[in-house]
Write a structure and sequence with these properties.
3 helices; elongated; Double Stranded RNA Binding Domain; about 140 residues; two-stranded antiparallel ribbon; alpha+beta
């Protein structure tokens, strides 16, 4: 079990890993080794995620989520397969953790009477200052 938060734990069977060849330049060995990792996680069918978490996860994942609700993360930053596996899993966990925290709702407030009065006084002072300004006459 992979613990994401105290209430969310993912089973190892829910995560698919495919090893692919890493893009970019390299040496003689680059065309033979499959060091990049493509991690797939079906968020829509996962019993660990509630519907609310899934709906928050959708915009966070963006292009990494398919129409079917499968998150695809490709990691090829490191040279070794093991480090890329760890990186992909860490990125998935971070994404789910971010979606698991519900957004803070803003409670609408009104400005106080004193704040309104100070604002109006400031506007009046500024208007009077502009009114006093005039053309400079040469005598």
């Amino acid at each position: 079990m992979i613990e994401v938060t105290p209430s969310i734990s993912l089973g190892e069977s829910e995560i698919e890993e495919h090893f692919i060849r890493s893009p970019g330049s390299g040496g003689q060995k680059v065309n033979k080794t499959e060091s990049a990792v493509q991690l797939r996680f079906n968020a829509r069918r996962s019993p660990a995620l509630s519907n609310a978490v899934f709906l928050r996860l959708k915009p966070l994942a963006g292009r990494r989520m398919t129409k079917d609700g499968v998150i695809v993360i490709t990691a090829n930053q490191f040279r070794t397969q093991e480090l890329n596996r760890r990186d992909a899993l860490d990125r998935l966990i971070a994404l789910i953790r971010e979606a698991a925290t519900p957004p803070k709702y803003r409670r609408p407030t009104k400005p106080s009477k004193g704040a309104k009065q100070r604002r109006l006084d400031s506007k009046t002072r500024h208007g009077n200052l502009k009114k006093v300004r005039g053309r400079v006459r040469v005598d």
